[in-house]
Amino acid sequence: MRCKLLYYSHYCMINPSLYIDISEKKGKAVFTSAFIHKQSVIEIAPVIVMNESEREFLDKTLLHDYIFEWGEDKKKCCMALGNIPIYNHSYTSNCEYFMDFEEEQIFVKTVRDIQPGEELTINYNGDWNNAEKVWFEVTE
After folding, report:
1. In a 10 Å sphere around its CB, with 0-12 CB exposed, 13-18 middle and 19+ buried, how is residue 4 labelled?
2. pLDDT band at 9 (very low <50, low <70, confident <90, very high)
3. What pLDDT does 139 receive?
4. What is the distance between the alpha carbons of residues 105 and 84, in angstroms, rounded to a whole number?
5. Is the C or the N end of the chain the one with fewer CB within 10 Å?
C-alpha cells in the first residue's frame, strides 16, 4: 500500500487524506486532500450483514440507497461502515469496490491516479466502468 494509514486493524483502514464534503450536484461526497496513486487501497471497512427478510424491510426505507447486495446469491444485504456509504456513483468511476464475504468487509481501490481535491466515486453496478442504468437519475 502506498499511503499512510490513519487507522488499520484486521477490519478497518481509512486513508488519512480522505474527507467528507458537499458535492455541488450530489450532496455528501468523499474527497481527497492528497495525490493518491492508481491501484491504491484507500479504505477497508467492516460491514453489518442482514438476512433476506431484513433486506425486504430495509428496501422500504431511505437506507435502501446506502446498502449493498451481499453474498454469492445476493439475497442478503449489508451496511458498510466508514466512508463507504458516502461514495457517490459514477458510470466512469475513479475507484472500485470489492466485497470479502468471508471476512465481512468491503474495500475500495483506485483505478487511476487521483488528484488533490478530487471527488472519489464508485460505480454502483460493481465494475468501475459498467454503463448499465442504475435505479436513480444520475447527475455526472
Report:
1. exposed
2. very low
3. 60
4. 10
5. C
- Contacts with 135 (C-beta within 8 Å, 6 or more apart), sequence order: none
pLDDT band at 134 (very low <50, low <70, confident <90, very high): very low
Largest CA distance in the chain: 42
The C-alpha cell at 91 is: 458510470
Closest CA to 98 of 57, 44, 55: 44
Neighbours of 98 (CB within 10 A): 12
Instruction: Give Cβ neighbours of residue 103 (< 8 Å, ≥ 6 apart).
Output: 10, 11
Q: Is the per-residue pLDDT at 10 higher than 70?
A: no
* Residues in the chain, total: 140
Any idea which residue has 464475504 for its cell?
101
Q: Find the angle CA(107)-CA(18)-CA(125) to the nearest 5 degrees.
A: 40
For 38-60, write each residue's pLDDT tens digit: 999 999 999 999 999 998 888 88
Tell me how crowded residue 22 is: count the other CB atoms within 10 A of its CB.
10
Average pLDDT over residues 12-32: 91
Q: Bridge-partner residues for 27, per DSSP?
A: 23
